[in-house]
Design brief:
By secondary structure, the protein is an all-alpha fold. It has 2 domains: 367 residues, no CATH class; 168 residues, Alpha Horseshoe (Serine Threonine Protein Phosphatase 5, Tetratricopeptide repeat). Helices cover 71% and strands 1% of the residues. Strands 1-2 form a two-stranded antiparallel sheet. α6 crosses α8, α8 runs antiparallel to α9 and α13 crosses α14. The protein is globular, with a radius of gyration of 27 Å.
Length: 606
Amino acid sequence: MPIGRKSIPPWLPYFDLACAVIAGALWYAMPQLGPWPLAIGLLPWAARLVLTGWPAPRTAFDLPLVLFLVTAGLGVWAAYDRGPAWPKFWLIVGGVLLFYAFAGSEPLGGLRGWLLASFSAGVALYFLVTHDWAGQPAKIEALSQVGRALQARLPLLPGHRLHPNVAGGIIAMFLPFAGLVAWQSVQHLWGAGRSRAARRWLSFVLSLGLLAMAVLGLLMSASRGAWIALGAAFLLGLLWLLARWLGGSSTNRRAWILAFLLVGVATSAVIAVVWLGGVPGLIEALPGPDTSLGRAVLLQDSLLLARDYPLIGAGLGGFMMLHSSYALLIHVGYSVHSHSLFLDVAIEQGLGGLLALSVMWLLFAVAAWRGLIQGRERPGAGLLAAAALSLVVLVVHGLVDDVLYGSRAVLLLFVPLALAVPYLRAQAAPDWRRRILVAAGSVVLLILAGLLWWRPLLSTAYANLAAVRQSQAELSLYTWPEWVLQDEVRRAVDLSSSIGGYERALALNPDHASANRRLGQIELSLAEYEDALGHLERAYAREAWSSATRQLLGEALVVNGQVEAGRALWQDINNGQNQLEARAFWYGYIGDSEREAAVRQAMAPR
């Protein structure tokens, strides 16, 4: 496969994959290593540069990957604590190295499927033998009993403990590759001829073993989100096979049949969910505890955070205290991530990071269309199909949980995409005239958007930057119980930069919800109660759906003497972590007994 001036030597793809895996494993096992594993990961890049004149395979994913890395770098700058931000950044870099290693591994052929199938089974085995089934039982008691029986026969093994949801998500994501190698082994076993029969039987037994281990690990993880995601991928695969069979050799017929089947299945799913009583009813119908209400509240809080940091992001690795301080309004950490891959990327890297990831997924969809619908078959078409199912698992599971971006497994985020690279290579010489026209048209549209909406855009930029500076000033210092509440830190640190940023944002857009809410929260802490009321009323006018905004406005009303109005707003807020009791404590802590009494009066049941 030629790249640059020369062709790739046969050993280079193996060397590239080995170095990327070693670098990624080092970052995974020792997150504080910093950039040192990069020296190993870039060895094949240096070799390729010398041998071919280009350091890495050129792919259609290059630009969105660069954008994702740039926004991740901004996420390190924006983070209030760069201690966890840097390790996450290097894990993302490791994921990019793995992408390019797999993108250049086409000469390995079917070995890639076996490697990924073995990885799925290996994760399953590791989870089964290291999980503490007694101390952390599964959500389903029958599975816990099986786990405890297994644990009783094994010694206590050292190593990093995978959370069951993370283990289940990883296994489900790579299980389609185990299914692929098992299916191919069955085909080879019953193929024509008797040559190498022993090898074919060995391949058959080994592939079934890998598939069985992966299925067992997924079952034992009790990750219902992973089960649903894999079920959705399996159903999509069946619909594709049906459309291919019914459509014959006609690409258009295949596409229309697949679209019709998808609409039918989606409609049926919506009817079933409504019949069960909505998403909470669906989750309640599954085995295990009902977590729908907690997830719904967490997603709503996370959406509020994403609105606060849309352009720059809030920084890598800081979700827990950002969520507690500015959305949940408590003084200690509560959740490590939002349980949504999409919201976590938007919060930590801004909409630019989410856009980059979405573009990569769209590019994969184009490759899947070419290879699986239009029928441009290649020797690795089975791998593309498995990768498509893997990506469906990733995206569907990402709607209800974040097992990759929210953990060290972010290393694996780009692996399925790499298998689509051969289907996105240009089929002919590029039409530079058309590309120049498209680029020029895009620039013109961006300029027009800037001219038409420059005030709200600039207002949002000011507010986002002010929010970053506020979280850096407050949360880089705040620890509990050294500081009783975040309000105490706000009185001790210099927030003039953040306050000035919010005020500039409001000068351009007086109704900017995030700027009004964040400024009102600061003013409550600084005892500027009348100003806080004005800002929080404007915020409430734009985001009445937010429990945090209702709680803050209710507090502003109460401390300004409007106790009954505040009580009315507090009737349906999230007070599950005794948020209102903390507010009463604060006013007692600063010696304002009158306002403490007013808060207690408003929070008391009628």
